[in-house]
Specification:
Length: 332
């Protein structure tokens, strides 16, 4: 058995698994990239490592320094792990609406957690602006700035896209995922297109995000809302700038939840809602390009991060969403 020289070497090189239900339903081969297998249990470990390494290479992050970031949670968890491994402190600013598991995890990892009320990006109290101010006011600190720091998407050009290409033996017809910072869709899109410009790159946008209308009609306009954490963008971040999006789908929480439920009940995969939305998007992409094709998507994080929300029937009912049916009996 091979050994790994450090925790940081555990980031990336995640497995790609055939998703049976989505494949059978569409006549395509649909594969999920198991990003929950990263040490921080999400896709964001990759961006965290690249952002920290980039700051070190630029000489702006000194030994014993502090990494400050605004995040929906997963990037903070990645930064805290990478920071611990390399000797940096972390200060994480998060909207208070994110799951309790993410807050507990960040505190358990030793990050200093700053919770702020959820607010629009135009509000100076928004978590991103708050994190920038804290970084400016803290000695020997950097602002990770995942939304507009393109070291984020470089992680996906250089690692995620290359891994998918290798794992699928260069036979990739389509790729789709949703966007938070946009690092994953833009980076994997650019990386796969560099290998084969005919790969179809599709954005799967949740309700409440503005990107579907942007790519479909050239207008940043959001409609509806979503309880999915970590996705749903309202602007063209630096990471999204120049993303090679060929087509786009708008995916509801209910459509994403069908796949969260089915992948758990039928295939034993416990995932978060952004993964469900990605798989629903992959099914749409399969219908768009037709049967017989090979499609990859991202399984962004573990469902264990959402036991108090998605897998809590009372929480789901309060949000007007269907609980997992096998949990419903126990709730009654
Ligand atoms: N899903 C989850 C659960 C996330 O935390 C994130 C990151 N915010 C994403 C998807 C989207 O990834 P990206 O930031 O690369 O667009």
């Amino acid at each position: 058995m091979k050994t790994m020289p450090s925790t940081l070497d555990l980031i990336g090189n995640t497995p790609l698994v055939l998703l049976k239900g989505p494949s059978e339903e569409t006549g395509c081969e649909i594969y999920g990239k198991c990003e929950f297998a990263n040490p921080g249990a999400s896709v964001k470990d990759r961006a965290a490592l690249f952002i920290v390494r980039d700051a070190e290479e630029q000489g702006i992050l000194q030994p014993g320094g502090t990494i400050v970031e605004g995040t929906a949670g997963n990037t903070g968890i990645g930064l805290a792990l990478v920071g611990n491994a390399l000797g940096y402190k972390t200060i994480i600013v998060m909207p208070e609406t994110q799951s309790q598991e993410k807050k507990d995890t960040l505190r358990a990892l030793g990050a200093q957690l700053v919770l702020v009320p959820a607010a629009p990006f135009s509000n100076p109290g928004h978590f991103v602006h708050t994190s920038r101010r804290i970084a400016e006011e803290t000695d020997n600190a950097i602002w990770a700035n995942q939304f507009d720091n393109i070291a984020n998407r470089r992680a996906h050009i250089e690692t995620t896209a290359e891994e998918i290409w290798e794992q699928m033996d260069g036979r990739v017809d389509g790729f789709t995922c949703a966007a938070g910072t946009g690092g994953t869709i833009a980076g994997v899109g650019l990386g796969l297109k560099a290998r084969n410009e005919n790969v179809t790159i599709a954005l799967s946008d949740p309700h409440g995000a503005a990107l579907y209308n942007y790519y479909a009609h050239g207008e940043l306009r959001a409609e509806g809302n979503s309880v999915a954490e970590g996705i749903g963008q309202g602007r063209i971040t630096a990471n999204l700038d120049g993303a090679p999006i060929d087509t786009q789908f708008r995916i509801s929480d209910e459509e994403g939840l069908v796949w969260v439920r089915r992948l758990l009940a039928e295939e034993g995969l416990c995932l978060g809602l952004s993964s469900g939305i990605n798989v629903a998007g992959a099914v749409e992409l399969a219908k768009h390009i037709g049967p017989g094709h090979r499609i990859a998507t991202i399984l962004c994080d573990t469902g264990f991060r959402y036991l108090s929300t998605l897998y809590n029937p009372e929480w789901m009912q309060a949000k007007g969403l269907p609980p997992m049916p096998w949990q419903l009996d126990k709730a009654d």
